[in-house]
Amino acid sequence: MNPKFVISLTCAADNTDKATVAFVVANAALGSDRDTVVFLNVEGVRLSQQGYADSIHEEGFAPLKELMKNFAEGGGKIYVCSPCFKKRKLIENALVAGAVIVGGAKLVEFMAAGAPSLSY
Fold first, then answer.
1. CA–CA separation, 52 and 75 (whole Å)
2. pLDDT over 80 at 1, yes or no
3. 50: domain CATH number?
4. Three-class secondary structure of residue 37 per DSSP
5. Taking the model in full, what pTM does it have?
6. Number of structural domains, the chain?
7. Torsional class of 16: left (φ above 0), alpha (ψ -120 to 50), beta (otherwise)
8. Higher-confidence residue: 1 or 119?
9. Residue closest to 120 by CA, chosen among 48, 46, 45, 15
10. Using CA atoms, how far apart are residues 75 and 102, in angstroms rounded to an integer?
11. Cβ neighbours, 10 Å, residue 60
12. What is the DSSP string of 49-80?
């Protein structure tokens, strides 16, 4: 079984249900001893900004801010798509814990051994 797992997240406040479920699954992957990456791209890159997720709370789930914090504290990695980030003119020194801005090559490198992935 591959020890790596990737979740590609293209949503933020535009679809809070998908954004929340992505981090629920990411935390489950960490809990299953998977080296886990959440790849924020398209609108998902907005979640990389401190404070952005503070008011997102889908009924029946923990608040997104808490899910993201638990993910980072658990050793999860948050890769932020560099071109998507730049296009939206976001602030590099306002990244949430665990987030790093990367190019596509970094994601490909992580997945090269055949890491399973999900997209939201």
1. 21
2. no
3. 3.40.1260.10
4. strand
5. 0.96
6. 1
7. alpha
8. 119
9. 15
10. 17
11. 7
12. BTTGGGG---TTS--HHHHHHHHHHTT-EEEE
Alpha-carbon span 26 to 10, nearest angstrom: 14
The contacts of residue 86 (CB under 8 Å, 6+ apart) are none
Q: Span 75-97, mean pLDDT?
A: 98
Please name the helix (run of DSSP H) or strand (run of DSSP E) that holds residue 105, with its range, or none: helix 104-111
Taking the C-alpha atoms of residue 33 and residue 89, their distance in angstroms, rounded to an integer, is 35
Rounded mean pLDDT, 17-43: 98
Strands lying side by side in the sheet with 117-119: 99-102, 77-81, 35-40, 4-9, 117-119
What DSSP designation does 95 have? Answer: B
The amino acid that residue 86 corresponds to is K
How many distinct helices (H) and strands (E) make up the chain? 4, 5
Full domain range(s) for residue 52: 4-119
